[in-house]
Design a protein that fits this description.
This protein is an alpha/beta fold. The chain folds into two domains: 268 residues, Alpha-Beta Barrel (TIM Barrel); 66 residues, Type Iii Antifreeze Protein Isoform Hplc 12 (Alpha-Beta Complex). The chain has twelve helices and twelve strands. The longest helix has 18 residues. It is elongated and about 100 Å long.
């Protein structure tokens, strides 16, 4: 299996700490200083990377109000073009935001949505490329990203097995096997019953890649569970304050919530440890508190051992309990007092 993928010198995989991606998406609210503030907060709370989205309204959809171009659910009543016009990040910001992230020491990359966006990000030496869930069937886009030979992170929110397989094969045909698959539900916010976290180990086994979670649920219980199931990456939307509004505010974390998630997952990582049936030093020392055979009544030399004068009790400094039936009926080689740990030396 693929052991790890490396982004900006950080190894990402089952043997390494969880990699946290702070998804800015539309939470910049088309305010450059706010975008910088989100990057700064991401650095402060311990995220590994900030992810942008690189598109213009006309590179992602058409300015059309036919029924198929109208949104439902969270953005009902708006056309796709109107949503993206409100949410997109001006392209002239990219260079300055990449420079700022580098200055403060946090990785930054983006989801491109067409070839021109890939070219823009390539000119900025983006360390990775994210394929959004709805773009998993854009084979030309995936190929263009893969040919940069940078890691490719692919969300699987709308994907069936064949879609994932084709996306992976597209990367590999381009000579790029630095692939991370993210379990995802393209529902905003995601309902718990639709998430199916048990897919995470299945993705790793089936596609032999590093796997993670791109999560749109509220809270961080899902993310903690995902890491316990083998996720090496956790991606969540973050805004400075949900009350500020914006297309993605309703399912975005605030910085203190993102920080609490990181803290919880770091704790879980310690608890996960490694799969082993061997006793560590602490366990070996604790064995002293287990059960063993002790004299529970004074016994005279030559007296017969019985269930009344020998028992299994704590601590574990006497003879192993497995020998109780073997001892019963045999004679004591010497006088033994109450509380003496049993030894073969005392058995005739």
């Amino acid at each position: 299996m693929k052991d790890y993928v490396e982004i900006d010198g950080v190894k990402i995989g089952p043997s390494y700490p969880t990699y946290f991606i702070c998804e800015m998406s539309a939470n910049h609210l088309q305010d450059f200083e706010r975008a910088k503030a989100i990057i700064k907060k991401a650095k402060e709370i311990g995220a590994n990377a900030v992810k942008l989205q690189s598109y213009r309204p006309d590179t992602i959809t058409l300015n059309c109000r036919r029924p198929e171009f109208m949104s439902e659910g969270l953005w009902e009543g708006k056309s796709l073009y109107e949503i993206y016009e409100e949410a997109y990040m001006p392209w002239e910001w990219h260079e300055d935001l990449f420079k700022y992230a580098k200055e403060i020491g946090i990785t930054i990359f983006s989801s491109p949505f067409d070839w021109t966006a890939v070219d823009l990000l390539s000119s900025l030496d983006a360390p990775a490329y994210k394929i959004a869930s709805y773009e998993i069937n854009d084979i030309g886009l995936i190929e263009r990203c893969a040919k940069t030979m940078k890691p490719i992170i692919i969300s699987t929110g709308i994907a069936e097995e064949a879609d994932i397989e084709e996306a992976i094969m597209t990367c590999k045909k381009a000579g790029n096997d630095n692939i991370i698959l993210l379990k995802c539900v393209s529902e905003y916010p995601s309902k718990l019953e639709n998430i199916n976290l048990r897919t995470i180990p299945l993705l790793r086994e089936r596609f032999d890649t590093v796997v993670g979670l791109s999560d749109h649920s509220m809270g961080h219980e899902v993310d903690v569970a995902a890491v316990a199931l083998g996720a090496s990456v956790v991606e969540k939307h973050m805004t400075l304050n949900r009350l500020d509004g914006g297309a993605d505010a309703g399912f975005s974390m605030e910085p203190d919530e993102f920080s609490a998630m990181i803290k919880s997952i770091r704790g879980v990582e310690k608890a996960l440890g490694k799969a082993t049936l061997e006793a560590n030093e602490r366990m070996k020392k604790s064995k002293i508190h287990s059960r063993s055979l002790f004299v529970v009544k004074d016994i005279k030399e030559g007296e017969v051992f019985s269930y009344e004068n020998v028992r299994s009790v704590r601590p574990g400094t006497g003879l192993h309990t497995r020998y109780l039936d073997e001892i019963i009926g045999k004679k004591a080689t010497c006088d033994l007092t109450y509380g003496t740990p049993m030894s073969w030396d005392y058995v005739e």
